[in-house]
């Protein structure tokens, strides 16, 4: 299965790059499954139902979230009706929405997409490790199983937590990809037991910024401790940033992995497979 994952879409620049670029990118990569983290799409904070519809129409199959899941409060009443939009599964029981979803993939295949959130340096939620383990117990990966691929978006600040998560589930899922830090890491690879991994996919946003937000006001926050200008997304051309993975439908594990960086300020990267 050919799987494209794109990191946090930030503001209008990120939205425009995604809706403008994804149809051609999806076609060029011949992607079977496209997953996009949408937690910062609405002015940096959350995502609106209209944006969800636009991203799905542009070619995303599943959208994930993170610590900004509820910044657009309309999502609380919307998320239960849209199974292609998931939020971290380790929110407390009773939280609206779901933390994992199974989608149909061309060729009669199915894929499980899961979203978990780390706890180090973040709002503490339930245990993402045990939460993921419980969800995985409901599925069987590979030919003859319930799903032929499993992708987990781990939305976390700490590299150590992301790596620990990936090694814990190495060989049991197809892809573990990190989000939230908004900067693509160079450690994309296939782990020992066959899981593709990248500590952070980077963001779909303007990199002439502080993690997607206008650099002046963002930097000032570190200089002055009185409230200053409100943070707003940077408005230059965005880079689409993420990871592309090809998996074996028989084992459900990764065969090849490569970064994707398209447009904007970042050095460009495109898979050669
Ligand atoms: Fe983010
Ligand atoms: Fe985040």
From TrEMBL:
Positions bound to Fe cation 1: 8, 39-40, 182
Annotated transmembrane regions: none
Sequence positions that bind Fe cation 2: 39, 67, 155, 180
Record domain Capsule synthesis protein CapA: where: 2-198
Protein name per Swiss-Prot or TrEMBL: Metallophosphoesterase
Keywords linked to the UniProt accession: Metal-binding
Metal-binding found in the keyword field: yes
